[in-house]
Amino acid sequence: MTLEDYEKEMLRCSRCSHCKWVPLSQIKSWRFAYSCPSISKYNFHTYSAGGRLIMGLALIKNMIDFSEKMMEIVYECQMCGACDVSCAFVSDRKPTEIIHELRVKCVKEGTINPKLKEIIEDTRKYSNPYRESQEERGDWAKGLNIKKLPEEKAEVLYYVGCTAAYRYPDIARNTATILKKAGVDFGILGKDEKCCTSTSFVIGDEKIFEEFAKENIETFNNLGVKTIVTSCAGCYHMLKVYYTRIAKPNYKVLHQSEFIAKLIKQGKIKLTREVPMRVTYHDPCHLGRLSEPYQPSYGKEYKVLNQLVIRDVKKVYGAKGVYEPPRRILKKIPGLQLVEMERNREYAWCCGSGAGVKKLNPEFAEWTGEERIEEAKATGAEAIVTACPFCVRGLEDAIKKKGEKMKVYELNEIILKSMD
Ligand code: SF4
Ligand code: SF4
Fold first, then answer.
1. pLDDT, tens digit, 9 for 90 and up, residues 313-342
2. Which of these CATH numbers, 3.30.300, 3.40.50, 2.20.28, 3.30.70, describes 119-265?
3. In this predicted complex, what is the ipTM?
4. How distant is the alpha carbon of residue 374 from its chain centre?
5. Which residues line ligand 2 (CB under 6 A)?
6. Is 270-287+322-420 in the same CATH topology as 119-265?
């Protein structure tokens, strides 16, 4: 699909503004009623999903051009998908898909911000967006005696991802330690693992996504593994949702929280030690509402009274994400109390880091994270647990900026505290 293909969708955006808020029936308080970080911060309609749809329409009708301001607004958005969930309650325009196509057009025909360009160029050059050495990608695993694929064979591939491999090696080590303790036959690609291109893709560069996805899928298929386990919600989202657009996989993709929840159910992991803590859980957008496999859901059109167009689309989106496995794990830990934030599961507020915003506008990213910290504090929790290294980073930076004492844990750190 191209932006032009969405012309009807953009025309049918009724400017109702539901995409700015948590669906009305789900709002718990005025303080945490917004769902879109962008409109919440900038408070001008163009910064909402609906506003971006109008901008997209104006662009394909040659009513506006790729001005600096227009490009800025397109990218002051975390691509968090909250607008999709709210719009689905009233209209189902799937705004995030359309904003993605708007970004693809910006990359192809406009001049994107050099900071965003850098992410794409670095990913192509280094196979990761952090300019780190490919040779050192597997260094986090030193001393853990983990199988190296494809030289060795295993049933499960642990796809670590750039952020855990280079920025949060403890998250990778914790995951590997849990898998080892549970007796899982797994291996890693080490220096042969390449970026999933999540950030480049959401910036709108489909070329690099297609190149890397083809190569990665070929590598995965040739390994003969049954399952791929990811640490990062962004990698999970790419491998599960978007890679299937490129080629058919012969493996199953699971997030580590799903995989570990199964191991607990099978009795291979026992959570016996007390972890006396009151925590709240932050749903990563890519693990939650954005993790539903892609399927065009624009439905069949019908006309009422021969003029009013309606569609047979189900008005539910985002409800099938990975919400329960991390919660099931936390609830099994003795002594640990889980309390929910007002905006949870498909209504969760973004950590602020996604879609290039962290690099392009760190102040906006941190502001978004600070909002989440406020919401977490309102629950009385002493810590936030999440299941994505990128969210850990976003939330930790926000806490630091706010000068708060709250701690952020990646789920596996808590699991290890409770394991035998
Ligand atoms: S994108 Fe959807 S929710 Fe937002 S203004 Fe348009 S129709 Fe309304
Ligand atoms: S993707 Fe998120 S930040 Fe972007 S318009 Fe939708 S709700 Fe707002």
1. 555 667 788 999 999 999 999 999 999 999
2. 3.40.50
3. 0.96
4. 21
5. 36-38, 49, 77-83, 95-96
6. yes
